[in-house]
# Entry
Amino acid sequence: MAIRDLLFLLADVWMITVGFTFGWKFIRNYGNYLLGLEWIIVATSGTNFLVYALLGADEDSPMYTAAHFLDAFSRSVGITLILVLGLMGVTHRYKPSKATDVGVFAFAAVVGLFLQLFGEQLGLSLAIFYVVVNVLTTLFLVYFAKRLWAIGARGPAVVAGLATAAAFVIAATYDFVRIPGDDEARTLFYIAALSTWGFQMCAYYVGYRALHAHNEAAGGAPEQRARTRVAGA
# Structure
């Protein structure tokens, strides 16, 4: 096995592990199904990608069709709208209803299916669409990092900022740039992309945890002060 193939497998396993691990943590620890399920969907996409690569399947394989759908799902709505709504749980104390959770994932599935079926016909327009929605998401993620910095969580803020910058580069070059010396399967690009996506999911979980802890502490402060005043009266 070539070194680049081994690095590809390691990068994919890294992303899969992060996605399933922190996806479950989002659901178990915070009841955040938006981020939890999206992380799990990304990990599932990575698992499908890994099996596809190990089996050496071709474009007629159902796994290839699944890969296209899951890629469109996350690039269009998953790691854009769903990511923003999920992070708003700690930036704006947003608590979506179960109907909203179901609705946004249903919307993402419809968009993903549409883009899978008609993506080739859309051509350059689709590539530009992906860049535009990523730019809009990146603006919010910069705000997320700034919120972390403002509460004194400097480490998580820097990590979130680096993850956002790296993910933006991947998204901006996905459909437009080929790494010199890369092979037909774009192995070098996917090593970078899978590593970045895993780093991104890890960074946002750490940042979310920091902001959640800050919000909990701030939310309990007035009540604590009231108890202190009563005790001292």
In short: Residues 3-217 form a domain with the Rhopdopsin 7-helix transmembrane proteins fold (CATH 1.20.1070). Residues 220-233 have pLDDT under 50 and may be disordered. The first helix runs from residue 3 to 30.
